[in-house]
């Protein structure tokens, strides 16, 4: 459990750096590795995807970890949340390899409404995927329900990749593991 200090370590803007109104949960790199291994074990017991698509940004970390544990190919994909963002960038379909006939796992870090996962699922199907499932680390209560998730919480979750370590210099430890 963390407090406003965790947000200051993240170099959050002043408007966000006040003490949060709801609980904050830190998931440092070591804890992330264990959660990802457990999620991969549950997935592999029922399904074996050939390809994992990690949604940029947080889904790339989660997807990479799951792909390694599942011994699947990994590809990052950018899913634009707003139609006006897609104008100058390649469409997600152009970024993907041919997925014809493959079992695909679409991965993100957090799922609330499910709209990003749904868009990524549609992109994978358009690329020819035979079966597309979804997985996240954090599912929000009352939100969309991905096929796989590690845990459900309404807490603000801070991941190891959320920390701005460049600005603080070289660290020999994971600040998320040090606690507050």
Question: How do you describe this structure in short?
Answer:
The chain is an alpha/beta fold. It is built from 7 helices and 7 strands; from the N terminus they run αβαβαβαβαβββαα.
List how many beta strands DSSP finds.
7
Tell me the structural class: alpha/beta
Main sheet properties: 5 strands, parallel
Individual helix count: 7
Mean pLDDT: 82
State the CATH topology: Rossmann fold
Order of helices and strands: HEHEHEHEHEEEHH
Beta-strand fraction estimate: 15-25%
| Global Rg | 17 Å
Percent helix: 25-40%
**First and last CA, distance:** 8 Å
Structure characterization notes:
The protein is 34% helix and 23% strand. It has 180 residues and is of the alpha/beta class. The strands form two sheets. A five-stranded parallel β-sheet has the order 3-2-4-5-6, with helices on both faces. Helix 5 links the parallel strand 4 and strand 5 (131-139). Helix 2 (29-46) crosses helix 3. It is globular, with a radius of gyration of 17 Å. It starts with a helix and ends with a helix. The model has no long low-confidence stretch (mean pLDDT 82).
Task: Explain the layout of strands and helices.
Layout: H1 4-9, E1 24-27, H2 29-46, E2 51-55, H3 58-70, E3 73-77, H4 92-95, E4 103-111, H5 115-126, E5 131-139, E6 148-152, E7 156-159, H6 165-168, H7 175-178
Parallel strand pairs: 1-7, 2-3, 2-4, 4-5, 5-6
Helix pairs in contact: 2-3
């Amino acid at each position: 459990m963390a407090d406003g200090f965790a947000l200051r370590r993240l170099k959050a803007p002043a408007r966000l750096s006040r003490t949060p109104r709801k609980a904050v949960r830190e998931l440092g790199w070591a804890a992330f590795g264990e959660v990802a291994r457990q999620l991969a074990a549950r997935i592999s017991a029922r399904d074996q995807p050939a390809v994992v698509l990690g949604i940029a940004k947080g889904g790339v970390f989660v997807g990479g970890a799951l792909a390694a544990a599942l011994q699947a190919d990994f590809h990052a994909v950018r899913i634009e949340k707003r139609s006006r963002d897609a104008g100058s960038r390649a469409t997600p379909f152009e970024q993907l390899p041919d997925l014809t006939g493959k079992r695909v796992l679409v991965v993100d870090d957090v799922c609330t409404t499910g709209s990003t996962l749904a868009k990524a699922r549609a992109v994978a199907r358009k690329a020819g995927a035979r079966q597309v499932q979804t997985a996240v680390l954090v599912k929000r209560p009352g939100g969309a329900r991905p096929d796989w998730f590690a845990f459900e919480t309404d807490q603000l979750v801070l991941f190891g990749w959320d920390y701005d370590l460049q600005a603080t210099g070289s660290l020999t430890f994971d600040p998320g593991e040090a606690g507050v």
